[in-house]
Amino acid sequence: MTQILNLLSLVSRRCRINQFLNGCAWSFLGLTVIVLIWAAISKTTPSIAMPWVWVVCIGLGLVLAIGILALALSRPDSTAIALAIDQRLGLKERLSTALACRNRTDSFALAAIEDAISTASDPMIRKRARRKFPIGPPPGWWSGPALVLAVLIVWYAVPQGDLFSAEEPVDGQQMVMAKNQSQESIDVLVDQIQQNEELANSLSSELGELGDSAFDKDQFKTPEQVRREAIRQVTSLNQKLDEILNSQEAKTDAALRDSLSSLTMPEDGPGKDLADAMKQGDFKKALEALKDLQDKIAEGELTEQQKQAASKQLEQLAKQLEDLSQQKKTLEEQLQRAGMDPELANNPQALQQALQNNQNINQQQKQALQQMAQAQQSASQMCQSMSQACQSMAQQMTSGQEGSQSSGSQQMQQMLSDAEMMQQMLQHAQAMQSQCQSQCNGLGQAMSNKNGNGKGQGMGNRGQGAGGDAPIAPTPVGTRMVKETVKVEGGDIIARQYIDGEVVVGESRVKMQELSSQLGDGFENGVIDDPVPTHLKDIHKRYFGELKKKVDKALDKPAAPAKSTDDVGGSSSDSSSDSPG
After folding, report:
1. Do the Cβ atoms of 265 and 272 come closer than 8 Å?
2. Tens-place pLDDT, residues 117-161
3. N or C: which end of the chain has fewer CB within 10 A?
4. Neighbour tally for 348: CB within 10 Å
5. Mean pLDDT, range 24-47, rounded to an integer
6. C-beta atoms surrounding 293 within 10 Å
7. Domain termination site, one of 157, 192, 220
């Protein structure tokens, strides 16, 4: 019977595959009819249109689902398959008779089964079965692809219309006004960007796309399409500006200004303006202060005492910059927040390896930490270079080579100039980003170019709604960081806090006594809460015993007496009610 069952299994599989293909073909045909009707209706009613990707994905999913359902439902029994084989191959019901007699033991049944087995074992029978039961699509399968071609013709050949639209035909004057307004908005942005050469060079490719003929193409049929294209171009420019503001150079500039904010101001002298400007992160002002100092030195306006004071201030500034180049406080804090060792901030290679091996943070956090590390490293290198330049200027001033063309002053001037250019470019990019948002708001005011003179039901009286172009646009606003100069005068002391020195009260023993009592029960509590393995009980008991002895020994010492305020050798911080004059 094995040969008979194998033949039946072969034919059954081919029949089920054909059922699957039939289900897919007929469902595909029905779906294309629905899509053809939808395409025809969407040409007259654009509001029901939907993306083709959705249509294709949903259609293929339904076709496969129906095919699988047809495959699951097509489970013919062995007798029906045997009758079909007997009929198509002309076997005179040999297989069906053998299946009917397989549970009988009489001579007729055995002879019928033996004859059927002999027939099923013939290789030619299997070949004939494959020919008589072919795998292929059903008749008329070409109807589905033909309807797909019809859908494409309707979608691309039939012009778009809107039978239910209340809009009036597009006026040529409105198109001209929309194009002029959009082009003026683009031109304003281009002109303002070109005011900063560095920013214009960074946006050269984007500015090249914003040509004068951007809105002269025939593809724009309505004013809304023109304004939508203008908004798209402005949005693309805004995204590029955002990339510049979040670039590695911007992060380096922020890290440098953050490091310089820790500078301490020297006493009044020729170098105070330079240090003050660097502390504020105002590189333009710092460059002006450096040039002013160079001019005074070159023209001999400084006395020897002032030169010595300037040299001392430059040395102090160089030392502070050297110290700042070794500090990575911000990066250390971020590493600690991410659960990593803050000491990795001092070893870039080890930090890179640790980030790659860390599985507790996601890829975005790793990238942010890498960028921060690179920015901190670049800022440290700049602080190191500035320190060397200040040290060189101080040495040349001491040795009498204080000319305006000294190597130290040239190096410092070049670094401040580069930092100033980067700072101005970032400030200009930030201003342009606000301007792009303002232009998008202005262009979007006229996107709904419809008359809304209709009446509506409400809780009160009926009102008239007038839609259309807004006559005004929101005024652009912005913020500017300004440090005001105030005069602080002394006032009454309102608070006092000790910030250095010994504690002025006696030594507290309460917590030590509580700790001693807790250690006495440490071994028992540990055994109850978390059973200790047998081989570690002695170690566990000895550990708590030694720890309790140390605590008890500390408690046996007499507590130190409280010290008076006059005996404390620390300094205090007085808070006074100062008022700006």
Report:
1. yes
2. 777 777 888 788 888 888 888 888 888 888 888 888 888 887 766
3. C
4. 14
5. 82
6. 22
7. 157
Whether residue 146 is found in the same domain as residue 262: no
Provide the pLDDT for residue 244.
84
- Which has the closest alpha carbon to 156: 47, 33, 52, 57? 52
190 falls within a domain: no
pTM listed for this prediction:
0.44
**Among candidates 95, 93, 105, which has minimal Cα distance to 5?**
95
Q: Do 276 and 391 belong to one domain?
A: yes
Sort 143 into a burial class: Cβ within 10 Å, 0-12 / 13-18 / 19+.
middle
pLDDT digits (tens, 9 = 90+) for 343-376: 777 777 777 777 777 777 777 777 777 777 777 7
CA–CA distance from 364 to each of 35, 249, 331, 361, 543 (Å)? 42, 19, 16, 8, 45
Rounded Cα–Cα distance for residues 244 and 157 (Å): 44
pLDDT the model gives residue 581: 36
Question: Is the pLDDT assigned to residue 577 strictly greater than 80?
Answer: no
The DSSP line for 403-466 is -TT-HHHHHHHHHHHHHHHHHHHHHHHHHHHHHHHHHHHHHHTTS-------B---SSS--B--
The answer on 297 and 153 residing in a single domain is no
For residue 360, report the phi and psi dihedrals to the nearest 5 degrees: -90, -10
- Quick one: 268 and 153 in the same domain? no
Distance between CA 434 and CA 238 in Å, rounded?
9
Judge if 7 and 150 occupy the same domain: yes
Residue with tokens 């102090």: 316
pLDDT of amino acid 572: 43
Q: Tokens in use for 407?
A: 């190597």
Claim to verify: residue 16 and residue 142 sit in the same structural domain: yes
Question: Would 16 be classed as within a structural domain?
Answer: yes
Domain count, the chain: 3
Burial of residue 225 (CB within 10 Å: 0-12, 13-18, 19+) is middle
Would the pLDDT of 565 be above 50? no
Domain edge (last residue) among 135, 157, 179 = 157
SS3 labels along 236-293: HHHHHHHHHHCCHHHHHHHHHHHHHCCCCCCCCCCCHHHHHHHHHCCHHHHHHHHHHH
> Does the residue 422 lie in any domain?
no
Same domain membership, residue 393 and residue 504: no
- Decide if 170 contacts 222 (C-beta within 8 A): yes
Residue 181 located in a structural domain: no
The whole domain housing 546 covers 495-580
